[in-house]
DNA sequence: AGACAACCTGAGTTCAATTCAGTTTGACTG
DNA sequence: CAGTCAAACTGAATTGAACTCAGGTTGTCT
């Protein structure tokens, strides 16, 4: 499990980078990126606003970093969950379940990722932002490929009817991530129930 | 007073409101809301930037108006498409098809709507923006209810297995609208093909 | 114990959005 | 076929949040 992945061994002992990321995830996740003042994040961490620029080139650079880390985590979890599955339907189920096996912090990260996905479309002016953006874009494609190739393997084995695996993969992925647009931990339906419903939906979509 | 206005009874004959909306949809839809300068929209229409404030209280007010109009259209299209359907499966298919029967301008509007959906979560400071936001939110709920009640009718008739209609509705809707995040008219796959694939997916999800 | 890199700060600067203080335009009236 | 007046517009000034600058402080390591 990559639980402490937000901490980087390359950082100095006094570094507040991790604290900034945690604070930013909380504020961006609850109020949204645009309506969160960058200085609020500084206040939350207990430093002046200009100190933020010691760690991130800009507010957008911080956001892109959060998005990249979350995409990396999603991909890692997918790979880990599907690694030792031989039956295509079980592999599919495991992949869906891995997408919903998340902490409250990770829910916020998914929400931030989904809400700001369109940021990845246009190039960034500054170098470090652009590096993060390109890395995030590649991870998006990697996650898409994760799903596509899972579907193609299942089709090749005859476990799933043959369809356009790419479009079907995007549809499945789209349905799964759309949950983070409306789900709140305080809601009436527990996440486990949503996860089960989506799992069954995906199986019917793909395997029938 | 009693004179009949052919274009729009609310607007004066010299009004550029419609032109501003068209220009804003094009710019927000192609480059994204954040990376589009409000003055670019003014340039496109051929007026000074300050003239925009004669029609919209702010850039966000314009965006919220675009989103509300698109939500209204989506709801209207759903109602129209499903009005005279008696068979639940046919009604379901008609609903999905209506979601993809869109012009290029409407594709941009859907893209804008999906990319900025989270703007509807937090209250706005100004009155006119807040009015648009609340109207848009209510339309979101109306569209969700459109799908939920279609599913519930089908379940009541025994055409669909009984499941949590609300969560299932959100999943279906989420899958459909997720297309606007990646679809581009210049892409390799035609929209008609995507529409057909999604239609079959929805039918398997709901009716099996 | 002192060098020095990491870390931090208050005082500016920037730039897009927005407000202000009026001026122009043209549809409608009389 | 003037005169009126609200709609439509403008250039200049203001705002505010993101960001830069020119240094100051702190903890770690040798």
Please describe what this structure looks like:
The structure is a homodimer of 208-residue chains. With 208 residues, chain A is an all-alpha fold. In chain A, 66% of the residues lie in helices and 0% in strands. Chain A has eight helices and no strands. The longest helix of chain A has 30 residues. The N terminus of chain A is likely disordered. At the A-B interface, helix 7 and helix 8 of A face helix 7 and helix 8 of B.
Put the structure in a nutshell:
Chain A has 208 residues and is mainly α. In chain A, 66% of the residues lie in helices and 0% in strands. The first copy, chain A, has helices spanning 17-31, 38-45, 59-82, 88-100, 104-115, 127-156, 165-182, 191-207.
* Mean pLDDT across residues of chain A: 94
- Most extensive interface: pair and counts? A-B, 33 and 33 residues
Poorly predicted spans of chain A: 1-6
Strand residues, percent of chain A: under 5%
Structural class of chain A: mainly alpha
Report the total helices of chain A: 8
């Amino acid at each position: 499990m990559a639980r402490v992945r937000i901490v980087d061994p390359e950082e100095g002992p006094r570094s507040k980078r991790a604290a900034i990321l945690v604070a930013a995830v909380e504020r961006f996740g609850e109020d949204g990126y645009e309506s969160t003042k960058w200085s609020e994040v500084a206040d939350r961490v207990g430093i002046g606003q200009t100190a933020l620029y010691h760690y991130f080139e800009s507010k957008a650079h911080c956001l892109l970093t959060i998005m990249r880390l979350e995409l990396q985590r999603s991909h890692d979890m997918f790979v880990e969950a599907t690694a030792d599955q031989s039956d295509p339907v079980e592999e599919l189920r495991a992949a869906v379940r891995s997408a919903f096996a998340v902490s409250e912090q990770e829910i916020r990260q998914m929400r931030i990722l989904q809400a700001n996905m369109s940021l990845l479309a246009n190039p960034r002016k500054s170098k470090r932002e652009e590096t993060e953006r390109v890395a995030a874009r590649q991870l998006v494609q990697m996650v898409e490929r994760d799903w596509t190739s899972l579907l193609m393997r299942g089709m090749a084995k005859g476990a799933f009817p043959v369809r356009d695996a790419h479009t079907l993969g995007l549809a499945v992925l789209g349905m799964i991530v759309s949950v983070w647009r409306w789900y709140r931990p305080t809601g009436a339906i527990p996440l486990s129930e949503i996860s089960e419903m989506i799992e069954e939906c995906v199986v019917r979509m793909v395997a029938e």
